[in-house]
Structures are given as structure tokens and as C-alpha cells.
């Protein structure tokens, strides 16, 4: 019965995708596109057999968002580095080059899929988002984070507890057979110097579907 129901849902999605393709003028190849909600749903298994969305894990704010491509100026390192020093060096250079955004948001890019495991050699990029592509100087490098459908997860509180939030998300994704790719990234929305630790907000963005690893 579940197989029949799941097949019915996939057929309905396919029909809806075909209608969307006709209206938007795309070729309708959802399996390799990733450019619309139907493709994202099919690629990442975010629908249950009854056609409903997978419920979010208890205690976490999770939503599906269509994130635009954006450029960044970043400094590459690994998990074995002193992360605080890496960010300080990146931020100092970005400030000297006047690369700060109006919101002064900083971020961290993970070029590889974190669900596959993390160790001291795992690459990271401390970055500042850019409103437009500009000339930058070493040691910073210019890069771009691809747009597409991401799971946006809110983490509240200390950065030291971020691994706990990731573990919850990965366990939840595995239980529901969700596909989380790469690169993923974090945005640090609140300035730690201006807010108490319990009010810190970190937004985690995990791409849905096939991994598209980007080298820093």
C-alpha cells in the first residue's frame, strides 16, 4: 500500500512539474535540474509517501529556502587551525579592504559534505559576504556560493554547541533518507560583542540533493 501511495505521489509531482515546465519554458528534466521546488523535492526526498513534507526535528527551527548565489571574500583553512585566529585575520583584512557588508555578517563555508565526517583536515573558509563582485587582495580570495534549495536551520546560543545541532540534523536527515550535499555554510547573524551568548543566532544552510563540492 505504501509503495502504491508513494508511486501516486511521484506521479502527481511529475505531472505538476510538467505543468510548471510548460509555464516556465524549461525542459522539464527535473532529475538533473534542481531549479524549481519540484526538482528539489524529488532530488532530496523531502516528501513523505502521503505527499506531506518531512516534519522538522523537535526543538529546531528548520525551513526550506531558495537561496540566491552570492559572492564572498574568504580565507581558507582547516578544522585543525585556530578558528578564532582565522576569522580574526579574515575580518581584519576585509576591514582594511573595506569589504564589510551593511549588516557586517560573517560566515563559514564548508566545501565538503559534513555528514560524511569531520576531522582536522576538513577544509573551511572564513568569509564575508559581498553585495557585488569586487577586486580583492591577498590573503583573501574571491569565491561564490551557488544558489539553490537549502535547509535553513537556526542555532541559538554558543558556537561551542553547534556540533550538537549538526548531529541532530544529520540524524534526522538519515532517519528520513534526506540527501544533504555540499557546499554548506553558516551565517553569524548576531555580533557576539553586542549580544549576550544566549541571544546569538547562527543560520546553518545545508543544500538539498546531489553534492556539488567547491574547492576553496
Describe this structure in words.
The chain has about 220 residues and is of the alpha+beta class. It folds into 2 domains: about 1-55; about 65-205, Regulatory factor, effector binding domain (Multidrug-efflux Transporter 1 Regulator Bmrr, Chain A, Alpha-Beta Barrel), CATH 3.20.80. It has 5 helices and 8 strands, in the order H-H-H-E-E-H-E-E-E-E-H-E-E. The protein has an 8-stranded antiparallel beta sheet, with helices on one face. The longest helix is centred in the N-terminal third of the chain and has 23 residues, at about 1-25. Residues about 1-15, about 45-50 and about 210-215 have low confidence and may be disordered.
Shape: globular
SSE string, helix = H, strand = E?
HHHEEHEEEEHEE
Number of separate strands: 8
Q: Based on the structure given, which CATH architecture of the largest domain is correct?
A: Alpha-Beta Barrel
Return the structural class: alpha+beta
Q: How is the largest sheet built, in terms of strand order? A: 1-6-8-7-3-4-2-5
**How would you sum up the major sheet?**
8 strands, antiparallel
